[in-house]
Design goal:
Blueprint: E1 2-3, E2 9-10, E3 12-18, E4 21-37, E5 45-54, E6 61-69, E7 72-84, E8 87-95, H1 97-103, E9 114-123, E10 126-135, E11 141-146, E12 160-165, H2 174-177
């Protein structure tokens, strides 16, 4: 298994060039929890994310994302296809601001844009993504741990209280949260 500079585990299947942008395809293995913050998060990297879902074929989830930190924004396109309850094939790559704005014209009218504040941090050699939903507002935070094969493999930080393990629960997929229904 390889990892990027932040220690986020990746299982790379293939890399290809799409629209002159480097795209990566990987199997995403993810645990997801509803949590409350009960202490100080050490050394977190915070960014704002706007995520818009695009019209797509059945069993495919396409989205564009704008991620901003320290007045700098990066744009992505992502496509996800289901494999198993906690695994999906994810293809993702950076795109230009112009391509992002063009793709926004393909927004799914059944879904709203999600705005969330993400705090990324490591705890005991595990990479965590803690999302606070700005719009729509959720009662709890969503915590994702990528690469953990089972709940037993997760060492939960003491500054978070687990409300529920929602791994594989479609009600807590971002695409469902974005739903206007």
């Amino acid at each position: 298994m390889s990892s990027n500079i932040k220690g986020k585990p990746l299982k790379i299947i293939s890399t290809f060039n799409f629209l002159n942008m480097q795209m990566h395809t990987q199997v995403e293995i993810e645990r997801k929890y509803l949590v409350d913050i009960i202490g100080q998060i050490p050394n977190g990297d915070v960014s704002d994310i706007w995520q818009t879902y695009l019209l797509s074929e059945k069993d495919v989830c396409r989205r564009v994302r704008k991620r901003c930190s320290n007045a700098k924004c990066v744009f992505y396109i992502t496509e996800k296809r289901p494999l198993a309850y906690d695994r999906r094939v994810e293809t993702e790559g950076k795109i230009s601001r112009e391509e992002y704005e063009r793709l926004l014209l393909e927004a799914d009218p059944e879904k709203r844009t999600i705005h969330k504040r993400r705090c990324c941090f490591t705890w005991q050699n595990q990479f965590f993504e803690l999302d606070t939903f700005v719009e729509p507002v959720l009662q709890h935070h969503l915590l994702e741990i990528e690469g953990a094969e089972s709940a037993d493999a997760v060492t939960m930080p003491p500054f978070l209280r687990v409300v529920a393990d929602v791994t594989g629960n479609p009600e807590y997929y971002n695409a469902k949260i974005a739903s206007r229904k």
